[in-house]
Amino acid sequence: MQPGPGGAGPGRPGFDLGRARPDTEEVGMATIERIELRMVDLVPKVKRTDAIQSFVSQETPIVTITDSDGASGTGYSYTIGTGGSSVMRLLVDHLAPRVVGRDAERIEAIWHELEFVTHATTIGAITAIALAAIDTALWDLRARRQGLPLWKLAGGAREKCPLYTTEGGWLHIETEALVEDAVAAKAKGFVGSKVKIGRPHGSEDLARLSAVRKAVGEGYEIMTDANQGFGLDEAIRRAERLRDIDLAWIEEPLAADDIDGHMRLNARSSTPIAVGESLYSIRHFREYMQKGACSVVQVDVGRIGGITPWLKVAHAAEAFDMPVCPHFLMELHVSLVCAVQNGKYVEYIPQLDDLTGRRMTIADGYAHAPEDPGIGIDWDWDAVRGRSVEEFTREIRR
User: Fold this and answer.
1) Dihedral angle at the C-alpha atoms of 332, 333, 336, 340, nearest 10 degrees?
2) Mean predicted lDDT score pLDDT of the chain
3) How are beta strands 346-348 and 296-297 bridged, if at all?
4) Does residue 344 have an active-site annotation?
5) Would residue 196 show up in a list of annotated catalytic residues for this protein?
6) Residues 128-187 pLDDT 10s
7) Which of 196, 262, 284, 333 is catalytic?
8) What is the rounded average pLDDT of the residues 190-206?
9) What is the pTM of this model?
10) Which residue in 204, 293, 309, 349 has the fewest CB atoms around it within 10 Å?
């Protein structure tokens, strides 16, 4: 089901667009006729805290691209509370106008052109989030035109993949509740639970994780996430303190741009080091992998700039014998993890329940890849329209 999201509403003065045309217009094929832009601001259903921040808002840019045959595809990305208005201005003023008139099948060419014209603002989150919204829409359109679900179109490695949950492991949650959530997740067949770390003293993190390990036993994975909250010395110290718990990984222990620090930590730690949610370029991932600065790759479609670069990172990780366990966006990442050979886990954090009809299919702790053509998101367009921020709703035509 893919009805168009409807016409655009009026916006604030100054948030308008001269009807720019692309430098190159494709002929003789189904070209892009219309791009509809929206932003929905979602409030998380539960309180989400980590070592450095509280996640109180999810600004969700939504892009629908319609071609001259009437086929359409919808993509999206997200922020964790800031930057949504900047993303929308970048889409309206600079990116979407360049896509109108292009052959939608030339996804690689379009992605690189958009990256080039924004070279002054790359590499960074705002540009990557904007690129991701357009790129996922183009992949959705391609998959729908070909009558294939994304996971088959992008590789088709498997039909389902195991889940771990983060939703019950936030930093503010008391130990007893952490244990209850992990035990419940294990009973549902989940492969593991993620617990945020970064309490003021390492003994607090150790006590919380020890209680979870005692409750779930040895056959259940415990992931941890420091959210860039440590310096190198403290990260080495805490990794050593937590060694006997047999963690699946320590995620983002240091600042994301500290490759040297991650190299030194990874060499010292027997626990795998995971990175990716705060990396915005395939070259950043290349450096981490080449230099032995990580063991788990957590590339995020919304942060890397879309499906096009996500697949490049995943295939590069396979060459380094590294698993891909993407961050967030479970409704989209289930298809991509199932597409590639080294896709390992999907992170369970419900994100789009208020905007979709059918939910992601979960059975016995496994997320099943959608079988419908497209990226697998069943948008509830009445809900999307009702929650759209009016000033950022636009329609761009040829």
Assistant:
1) -170
2) 92
3) unpaired
4) no
5) yes
6) 999 999 999 999 999 999 999 999 999 999 999 999 999 999 999 999 999 999 999 999
7) 196
8) 97
9) 0.92
10) 204
